């Protein structure tokens, strides 16, 4: 077994196909396939299930992947220590719901560790995909929220996939609206007052149930609904249509502009915002640094 073989396995698991993995690794498909076969034979396990539709991680392959990542991480630490940071590209990936503090912390991480070579990924994506990314260990961390409404469903899903939720902070729900919105001067806004305005939320794809929504009280029926995929579009619609969305209240003017404000929302449950990790994973030095950056922004708020 070699570190190269472990890297091959992880890349195939992350990309989901031999073809894409081979392209990313700059080797031929037959060479990649043979290397994985040799590793499976040596370890006496089946890492990938192979069908006419493609490949997927087996149950024992998923366990093996967790250990493989730990081995590569420890190897990277050794290289950093004894090769004076010339151990190749630094790699890190985090998946998150649409939070400005998550982006700001990522910027700080890149400034600290992004030297000559690095390969970092920030995935602002759908809730189920965040969970899936951490399950597959494509992302080291996943950032999402839970409350009284979705906790049973999300918690059960995390437990079934060997994931853990770690609380970062508890937030009072706020309405995000334009600074020129008719309700912008109020100190608190009620659900009743919002009825006539378009409700904006992030589309959740195949898993577009209330429990996977990024916004609270999503079980409520609304007359005007608009779903979007990215933060910039949502904020443009907040301004252009006097729409609103509901989030933690943590907003950054440098990132989101000065035209959006946060106003407390009355009579709603708290949001427990945190990060998820895989039980079989070990937090890397980059993951640890990212969490420290997150805590710094949260403390500021």
Automatic annotation (TrEMBL):
Domain HTH lysR-type: 1-58
Alphabetically ordered keywords of this record: DNA-binding, Transcription, Transcription regulation
Keyword Signal: no
PROSITE patterns tied to this protein: HTH_LYSR
Acetylation recorded as keyword: no
Family: Belongs to the LysR transcriptional regulatory family.
Protein name listed in UniProt: LysR family transcriptional regulator
Organism of provenance: Suilimivivens aceti
